[in-house]
C-alpha cells in the first residue's frame, strides 16, 4: 500500500479500469536533484576509504554540506575482480580494508548519505564485476548489508542478445525491480541510470530510476560542455520531480575551464535541474570554485520545492531556433521558478558580446507588466525591466542568471502598444501596436 500514496490522483483513477501501473522508483527519495560528490573525475581508480572520509570531512569544512551537498559517492574500481565463493561482491581488501559497512557508517556519522557504483552488464567499465544475473544478491549486499543509499548503474559489457533477451529497458528493469524489493524492508534507494548513448533514455528512464545520463562522459573543456548543453536543450521537458536528465558530473576546478566557463557550467547544470555531483579534488580546490559551488540562489532553483521544470531555450541566438550545433548551443533560456521567471544567457562566442531579449520572448512573462531584476551571480537587485533587457559586454563563454519578479503594470504610454504585436487588436477590430 505504501507505494500507492505516491501514485497521485490520476493513477488511482486508472486503477478502476487498468492493471496497476508500475510506478518505477517514485518512492519518496530523490524528489529533487542529488547534490553531492563523485570520485571519478578527480581520481578515476585511485580511490580508497581514507580518500572518501577525507572528502566527506572537506565537504563539511568547506561549507559544501551546509550549502546542501548530501551524497558522497564512490565510482568504479572499489571491488575485487572476483566475487566470493558464494557469489557476493567483495570490496577491495586493501583499499577498503575496514569494510564497506564501516565506511558507510562513518559517512553517515558525518551527516552524509553514501553512494556506490555498479554496472548492468558482466563487468563495470573498468573491468570489475557487473551485476547482470546478480541483481537481487548485489542489491542486498550493497544496500542491506553495507548500508549504501544511492546506486549509479553503468552500461558496459552487456551480455549477448541470446543470453539477456531484453532491450535496454528490460536490462535496467532487472535492477530497478531488485531495488523496489528493498523499498519496504530496507529503505528506498536513489537509482541513477547511466544508459549513455542514443537510447532515448529520457523517454523511459522515469519509470525505472531517478536520473538518466543523456550523453557520453563530460570532459573538463568548453567543447564538451557546449555539446552537452546543446544535446540537452532539445529534451528539457523530460525533467521533473523524481526523474531528470543527468548532464554528468561537475568538472569545475579540474583545469581546462576558465572561471567564466566554470560559472556557465554550474549555472546550466543547476538550472536544467541536473544532479550536481562535484568531481573536483577537494584537497586542491580554490576558494573561487567553492564560491561557485555554494551559490545559494542558484542552488535554490536547482532544488525548487514548488517548480520542478528545467529552463528551456526561448531563442537559440547566433543560429536559427531549433538548430543542433555542438559548438554553439542555444543562448537564451528561461523557465518558471517558485519566485519568478529565471533567465540564463549564455555567450557561446569566443569573444565578448552584448545580449538582448524582449521579455515576452519567454513564455513565462506577462505582457503589459514590469519586472524587478535579481542578478543571481552578483547577488544584487538590478532595478526594473520594461519590455526588454540588455546585458553588455558578456565575457566569452560567460553566463548571466537573472530572476525576474512581477512588479506590477508597466507605465502608460510605452510604444509600441503591444509587446507581442501579432494579432494584437482593439475591440473595434483595428490591429494596434505594430512596429
Ligand atoms: C578469479 O576467477 C577466475 C575465474 O574463476 C580465476 O581464473 C582467477 O584465478 C581468479 N582470480 C583470483 C585473484 O582469485
Ligand atoms: C571503523 O573501523 C575503525 C578501525 O577498525 C574503527 O576504529 C571504527 O570505530 C569503525 N567505525 C565505524 C563507524 O564502524
Ligand atoms: C589532490 O590535491 C592534493 C593537494 O594539492 C594533492 O596532494 C593530490 O596529489 C591531488 N590528488 C590528485 C589525484 O590529483
Ligand atoms: C524563494 O524565495 C524564498 C524567500 O527568499 C527562498 O527561501 C526560496 O529558496 C526561494 N526559492 C527559489 C526556488 O529560489
Ligand atoms: C555551428 O554554428 C557556427 C556558428 O554559426 C557555424 O559556423 C557552424 O557551421 C555550425 N556548425 C554546424 C555543424 O552547423
Ligand atoms: C523586440 O521588440 C521590438 C519592439 O516590439 C521588435 O522590433 C523586435 O523585433 C523584437 N526583437 C526580438 C528579438 O524579438
Ligand atoms: C547587476 O548589478 C551589479 C552591481 O552593480 C553588477 O555587478 C552586475 O553586472 C549587474 N548585472 C547585470 C546583468 O547587468
Ligand atoms: C526596450 O524597451 C524600451 C521600453 O522600456 C523601448 O523604449 C526600447 O525601444 C526597447 N528597445 C528595443 C531595442 O526594442
Ligand atoms: C479603434 O480603437 C482604437 C483603440 O481604442 C482607436 O485608436 C481607433 O481610433 C479606433 N478606430 C476606429 C475606426 O474607431
TrEMBL record:
Organism field: Artomyces pyxidatus
Protein name: Glycoside hydrolase
Keywords on record: Hydrolase
